[in-house]
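--- STAGE predict ---
source: upstream dedup step, 1 unique chain passed
mode: sequence only
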Amino acid sequence: MQASDVQWSQTEKKAAQAAFDKAYEREIKALIEEVHERAGRISELDEIWRLHDFLSARRHDIDGKYDYSYSVLIFTFARLVKEGWLHLSELDGLEADKLTKVAALTHM
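--- STAGE serialize ---
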């Protein structure tokens, strides 16, 4: 079965949305903390441009990572687990086959 052919029940959709939102909130909170820390150390113009470049790169990464399309959601969850923004246990509510796929993809 292709990832794009995976069907999501209403219960799974609710669980998936909650897990997705939790990971996003965690990553954004960490980003805000890092920006506060970096901004507090700025003393030269070049450091402002480095902060700008950092933020541009992070925006690109985050915008690309948090795709809630059901056709790629298993891959999104695997990446979030692999990067530490989400734990497999937070995907309770998903069917066993989806959890197995996410877990397997985290080891690739």
